[in-house]
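An instance follows:
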Amino acid sequence: MGDLVRAVESATPPGRDRAVDALRALAILGVVLGHWLVTALVADSGTVRAASPLGYMPQLAPISWAFQTLAVFFLVGGRMGAQGYASARARGTSYRRWLGGRMARLFRPVAALLTVWAVAVGVMAAAGVGHATLHTLCKLVLSPLWFLLVFAALTAATPLVARIHPLWPFAVVLHVDLLRFGADAPAWLGSVNVVAGWLVPYCLGAAWARGGLPIRTTGRVLLAGGAATTVLLVLFAGYPASMVGVPGAAVSNLDPPTLAVVTFGLAQCGAALLLLGPLRRLLARPALWAAVALANLSAMTLFLWHQTAMMAVAATGLSAGGPLPGLHTVPDGPVWVLARLAWLPVFALALLVCRSAFRSYEQGRSGSSRVVREARPERTVEAHSA
C-alpha cells in the first residue's frame, strides 16, 4: 500500500488542483449513495417493482439534500471542459479531435453497460421473467444515463457556452417555471430546463476556469442566497421539499429541473467553492490523495454500475430465500431504513466487483494499475481529466 501511495504521489503533476478531483469524486459518491438510499425493489406477487421511501416517509426529504449532488458534478465538469478545450487549442489540437477523445472516454463504459444488459434482459425474458419486472430493472439501469447525455451535449457546446454568464440560463429556468406553474403552459415546455438548468452550474464552472470568480465571496453568496431562495420556494411557492423525483408525486424537482433544484444546486456549488481550501490541505496527505485519485480513475464505472450492483444483491437475496427486510420489502418505516443502511456495505462490495470487471472500458488499454505502476504523469492527468 505504501508503494501504491508513493507511486500515485510521484505521478501527480505539482500544479494539479487536487480539490477539484475530490469534488468530482464526492459528487459521484453522493449520487451512488443517494440512489441506494431512496430506491427500493419490492418483491410482490412474483414481480419486482420500484418504490421510494420518500413516498412513504416524506419527513426523510432532507436525505435528498445531502445526496443530490449533480450540480457539483456539472460545476467541476464545466471547469474541466473549459480548461481542457483551452489547453487543446494551445497545443493546436482541433475541436473535432478534442471532442472525439472526450466522448470516447465518456461512452466506452456506457457501451459496455448496454451490451451486458441487452444480454441479461434476453436471458431473463427467455427464463420467463415478467414484463413488469424487466421494465423496472431496465428503467433503474437506464434512467441515470439521461444526465450523461446532457453532460455530453454541454461538453460538445463548450466553445459556445464557456463564456455565457450563468445568469442567462438561470433566467430561462425562471421564466419556464413561471409559464409552467403560473400560466398553465404545456408540460413539454419543461424540457427546456433539462439543458438550461444544468447549464447554470456548467457556465459557473467555466467562469471559474477563466479565473473570473472571487472564490470566497462567490462561495458565500451562492451558499447563502441559494439556500435561502430554495427554502422560500419550498415554503411559499409550492415546490416539493425533495430534490429528487418521488414516484407518484405531482411535481418533480428533477424531471425536468425546476427553479428550486437550480437554486439548491447553486447553494451546493457555493459550499463546494468554500471547501476548496480545506480539501487542498487535506489532500496534501499522500494517502488521502491516492484514494481520491484512484476513485476518479473509475468514477464513471462506479456511477454506471451502482444500480446493477444493488440489483445483483437483491436477486441473490431472492434466490437465497427472500424477501429480506430492507432489500425486498416496502420502504414504509424506520425498520426498512435501518435494514437498508445495513445493506450498504454489501452493495459497495458488489460494486467493487463490477469495477474490477469493467474499469478497463473507462481507463482504456493501459488501466489504472499500469498508470500507477509506470507512474507517468501524463497518463495520470489524461485519466483524471476523463
Notes: The two ends are 25 Å apart (CA to CA).
